[in-house]
Structure formats: structure tokens, C-alpha cells
């Protein structure tokens, strides 16, 4: 039994050292768990924020696409109106009616020059110089009172 020289004090010390090491490892593990939970929570918050941003951007994109479609439809309506007015004027110029005078000044239109035939999107026709002055003053068609802009006036010289 002399070969079994086991010092109980050394064993106790080794056991105590091992316990201390295990406690330190547990403490480090708990610290890492807390760090992991903190990072996970931050990641979830960032993900939620990103999702809200994506939803807001998608909503804005949908609104812009809707507005774009509305403007496109308005432009198409205006184009159709101008085409109809132009066709009516072409027909009128080829086969003029009995009344070929400007309803503003009651003078006949000129084939060229400042009092040539001009129309508005509503289809009414006038002498160019008369309708320009009228629209600058009122921004309305003098016959139907439809709102118009100076840029809406179309000149129709003979073809």
C-alpha cells in the first residue's frame, strides 16, 4: 500500500481548482448566452424595421404607379379630344359652313396670318389672335366656358 501514496490535500486542491474552472466556464457561457440573446433581439428589431420600410416603399410605389396611370389616361383623353377637334376642323375647312366667322370678333378667318383658324380642346374654333387674347385674360373657352391654357390653342393653317 505504500505505492498508493495519495495525498488527500492535493486531491482536494485539484477538486477545488476544477470546480473553480467549471464555474468560470459557466460564467463565460452565461455571458455568451446573454450576448447571443441581445444580438438576436437586435437582429429581430432590424428585420422588423426592414420589413416596415419595404412595405412603405411598396405602398409608395403602388401610389406612384396609380398616379402615373391616371396621368397617362388623362393624356390619352386629351389626345383623343385633340384628334376629334382636328378632324372636325379639317372637315370644316374642306367644306366650310355658312358661318365662317370668328365668334369673338365676328370677322372672317384668314387663310394665313394672325387671324387664321385656331381651335381649343373642346372643339370650338376662333381666329388665332382673338382666342389667344381671350385665353390669356380668362383661361376659359368663350363659348362653353371650359377651362383652357394658352398651350391648348391649336393653329390650323390650310393644308
UniProtKB/TrEMBL annotation:
InterPro entries registered for this protein in UniProt: RFWD3, Znf_RING, Znf_RING/FYVE/PHD
Keyword Coiled coil among UniProt keywords: yes
Coiled coil regions in record: 12-81
Annotated keywords: Coiled coil, Metal-binding, Zinc, Zinc-finger
Pfam families per the UniProt record, alphabetical: zf-RING_2 (PF13639)
MF GO annotations: ubiquitin-protein transferase activity; zinc ion binding
The organism's place on the tree of life at top rank: Eukaryota
BP term (GO), one: protein ubiquitination
GO cellular component, as recorded: nucleus
Signal peptide: none
Domain RING-type: 102-145
Name of the protein: ERAD-associated E3 ubiquitin-protein ligase HRD1A-like
Amino acid at each position: 500500500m505504500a505505492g498508493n501514496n495519495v495525498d488527500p490535500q492535493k486531491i482536494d486542491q485539484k477538486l477545488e481548482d476544477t470546480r473553480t474552472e467549471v464555474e468560470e466556464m459557466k460564467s463565460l457561457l452565461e455571458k455568451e448566452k446573454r450576448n447571443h440573446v441581445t444580438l438576436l433581439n437586435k437582429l429581430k428589431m432590424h428585420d422588423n424595421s426592414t420589413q416596415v420600410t419595404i412595405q412603405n416603399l411598396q405602398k409608395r410605389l403602388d401610389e406612384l404607379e396609380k398616379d402615373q396611370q391616371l396621368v397617362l389616361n388623362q393624356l390619352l383623353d386629351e389626345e383623343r379630344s385633340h384628334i376629334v377637334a382636328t378632324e372636325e376642323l379639317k372637315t370644316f375647312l374642306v367644306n366650310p359652313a355658312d358661318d365662317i366667322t370668328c365668334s369673338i370678333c365676328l370677322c372672317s378667318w384668314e387663310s394665313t396670318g394672325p387671324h387664321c383658324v385656331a381651335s381649343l380642346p373642346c372643339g370650338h374654333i376662333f381666329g388665332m389672335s382673338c382666342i389667344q387674347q381671350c385665353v390669356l385674360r380668362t383661361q376659359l373657352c368663350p363659348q362653353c366656358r371650359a377651362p383652357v391654357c394658352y398651350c391648348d390653342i391649336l393653329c390650323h393653317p390650310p393644308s
